[in-house]
Amino acid sequence: MAESTGSLIAFLDADDIWLPDKLERQLAYLDNHPNVVIVSGQMIWWHVRRDSRHIERFGVAPGRNVHRELTVRNIVGNPSMALMRRTALDQAGPFDETLRWGQDWEMFVRLARVGDLGWLDVPVVIYRWHGKSLSRDNRWVRLDTLQRIAWRAIDDYQPAWQRPLLRERAWSSLELDRARLALSTNRPRLDHVRHAIGAFAVWPFDDTRAKAEFAARSLIGEQAYQRLRRLRARR
Questions:
Q1: Which has fewest Cβ within 10 Å: 64, 112, 128, 214?
Q2: pTM over 0.70
Q3: How far is CA 49 from CA 54, 105, 131, 132, 149, in A?
């Protein structure tokens, strides 16, 4: 980034794939929205080992405050999804190189203070997940780092009276991620129960279905849950 001279900055991380019309669509969006400093889109998540794909959606629901939502979670996506204006980056500042994880989210928070954010309602990248990118231990450390980034963003958010609620929402979102990680890494069931119940109890109003599912899944146990899924599929 420091060596580049162009007026726009785009990224392509290690295992990601740009869709063919990504830049064309995003350039057109920036041309039509001069107040937008960074435009993102949607992501195709490709689980390479299972060869399964689904669309992971980013952005905010109509009526939601972008700055507020960005303190709770990364609603922009990963850097490969973004196209940003250099003038905005010069004002906001580059990546915080002291961070091992979440540098993109922390920078997006600062960019949002410079201008508007935008999203395309179509996929712009394919994210390839092969399970070798991060070790199990590093994935837990990553979530702890993301929590610190959320707390920092919330501490700077105005009006201040909304901060306690934002902390509850951010904590609940992170607990859901911890519940998913506890299940995928075969940690003791107590860990899964603690994080899944915590995610639902602290703030059940975001991602309600996923939080309710993980809470029920943790309480009845994974074997019973999978048996119920198979019975439902047969019907």
A1: 64
A2: yes
A3: 14, 27, 8, 11, 31
